[in-house]
Structure prediction request, 348 residues.
Amino acid sequence: MKIVVLCGGLSLERNVSISSGTLICKALRELGHRAVLVDMFYGLEDVDVPMERLFDELPPLREAHVAAEVPDLDAVRASRKWKSRSMIGQGVLELCQAADVVFLALHGACGEDGRIQATLDLLGVKYTGSGYLGSALAMDKDLTKRIVAPLGVRIPEWRTVRYRAADIPAIADAQSLPVVVKPVDSGSSMGVAIAHTREELMEALRSNLNQRRVILEQYVSGREIDVAVLDGKSLPSIEIIPKHGFYDYVNKYQAGATVEICPTPIDPEIERRLGEVALTVHNALGLEAYSRSDYIVDGRGDIYFLEINTLPGMTPTSLMPQEAAAVGISYNALCQKIVDMALSEDRV
Prediction:
């Protein structure tokens, strides 16, 4: 089968995406597919093989690794040879149309927000994951909370703010502490901070001034647990225990920075309820195929939903592959299952 694995893009999560895409592409090739890894932003500009022969002369894959540093997107823009405002590089859509299916290994803006999904829908191209509407809703943390809260899903108190630098002191004065500061539409804990003091809150707000909107979310102390949904069923939960600080970008993607336990050693009744909540959120947003949602379970056993990811990471330290492995689904089998679900969807 001819498969394009789409990764990279112009997102702060591009390094994570490239790592996910590389591993996915490797697995698909091991399964016998003619899989081509393509950076959505750079396109085919550095590919030596003519497009019409790409699926027969597969370019080699580099080692998958997530750099500790957040990418410099200005440098990424400047390094592209094609000087266009397009977020999609040359040859990308044409190659996608020549494939049997596109495996979306994108994360963050341009990948999980519904725009590339809508583009592929208009082209009549099959792709993995959820459709454009569910992707867009899930990418917006504020909208997600508004949709699932009336369904009985417990959520930490939150408010969403737009602000300028001059507004920061007043916001800090009015906010109860501790509070979690997070951009409305980013992933991989980009821009996330836990503020215990007014000064920490002001610093977190200053660091997010470039964001369109920011969520101020009640800090809930407890165990951090993630639950994936695959093909209409919840997978065993996984507990995340960072060795230092909280589950930020570095702790997520640097090997050995976090202890991850799957299945979570937790009361079976809480595990059952975690699976129910994960399915409720997944279905309420109209998601398809698979997702992974984040929770805090406090000392009383209460479950607090935080956010959901429609294209969970598939890096060496990612959570969903570990959850799938707990029920006997290998990494390669997981990739094949995601492809099979995409082929069975009829979105257009």
Summary: Confidence is low (pLDDT under 50) at residues 247-253.
